[in-house]
Automatic annotation (TrEMBL):
Pfam families named among the record's database cross-references: DUF4079 (PF13301)
InterPro entries assigned: DUF4079
Segments forming a coiled coil: none
TM stretches of this protein: 63-87, 107-125, 146-166, 178-198, 210-231
Keyword presence, Cell wall biogenesis/degradation: no
UniProt keyword terms in alphabetical order: Membrane, Transmembrane, Transmembrane helix
Protein name: Cytochrome b561 domain-containing protein
Claim: Transmembrane helix is one of the keywords in the record: yes
Length: 233
């Protein structure tokens, strides 16, 4: 409980006759009344009946705080909101259906992730494992194009996600979905640079393959966090 009851006895002495009387009656034992004393425990916010207990200074339903390193990757919400404000106001005048504003971004990004990212990753493995020279040549041609397209549409989709949140008057950059999105785009940038260094260091091919698999895993987590975020609104 947020508070506890302590019982403190208080003696109540009865009125007795004047001391001038020659014979005094023995005083009865004092009556004891139990008085509740409310002591507020530190660290707990005051609450009304039925309200959920929570530490003082925290927001109800707020997500767990991120590590400082991850949170530092995100720009401030206020300048980004100011940049997007004119476009957000324009989108609001279009009077789009609520379901489209809410689920348009997740739907588009799911197509990009599984169609372009998934098939592009498959082609990357075929480049490494296939013995068919013709198949390997086609994969080498298509693999970088698909992954470059995935990077472009993910970057474009990030602006769409921010616009959707601001159009719905929701906060931005306050969820693990936003953090994983920034990390994923940063890793995709590194991934796109590695092939240019293969000639000088062939061992980077293995790093490129492992990093690509890790990026796809991260974006699957990103998608799950996005679905959770969409359902919570």
């Amino acid at each position: 409980m947020a508070s506890s009851l302590l019982l403190r006895p208080r003696a109540v002495l009865p009125h007795h006759p004047s001391s001038s009387s020659s014979s005094r009656r023995p005083l009865p034992a004092p009556r004891v009344q139990l008085q509740p004393i409310i002591q507020q425990k530190p660290g707990l916010a005051a609450r009304s009946d039925g309200e959920r207990r929570r530490p003082a200074g925290t927001r109800l339903y707020s997500l767990a705080p991120y590590p400082l390193l991850l949170a530092a990757l995100l720009p401030g919400a206020e300048p980004v909101t100011a940049v997007f404000a004119p476009f957000v106001e324009l989108v609001k005048t279009w009077d789009l259906p609520g379901w489209l504003v809410h689920w348009g971004h997740p739907g588009n990004m799911a197509v990009v992730l599984f169609a372009m990212g998934g098939y592009g990753t498959y082609l990357g493995f075929r480049i490494k494992l296939s013995d068919d020279i013709e198949e390997k040549a086609k994969a080498k041609d298509l693999h970088p194009k698909l992954l470059a397209g995935m990077f472009f549409f993910f970057a474009l989709g990030a602006t769409g996600g921010i616009t959707a949140l601001l159009t719905s008057d929701k906060p931005i950059f306050e969820s693990p979905h936003a953090v994983t999105g920034v990390i994923g785009l940063a890793l995709l940038t590194v991934q796109s640079i590695l092939p240019k260094l293969f000639e000088g260091n062939p061992g980077l091919r293995t790093t490129h393959g492992l990093l690509g698999s890790g990026i796809m895993t991260l974006f699957l987590i990103h998608a799950a966090l996005g679905l959770q975020l969409g359902i919570s609104f």
